[in-house]
Amino acid sequence: MIVKVPKEFMNSVKESSQSESADKSLVGTLMGTLTTMKFDGSRTMHEHIIEMTNIAARLKTMGMEVNENFLVTFILNSLPPEYGTFHVHYNTLKDKWNVHELQSMLIQ
Q: What is the number of domains present in the chain?
């Protein structure tokens, strides 16, 4: 028995496959950006953290949720050496901060 597959179905499968490839590529690009981003002082700390938070939100919409503890770590790792004392202080605390708490502390 030969089954004819409608042309529309084949086109939708092809488009879906291309879309998934593009999504995978974008996820990889966004993850790379998030994990290697550095604060260089060209904008405010608030803007830097918001940009990192927005990348994490975009990843979440694509099915790749970034745990808040990881995001805090990525933000801390994005800081220049001048923030070394701050980083050490954070690591000595028993409590973990969420992104908003970290942002408040960094902006002070």
A: 1
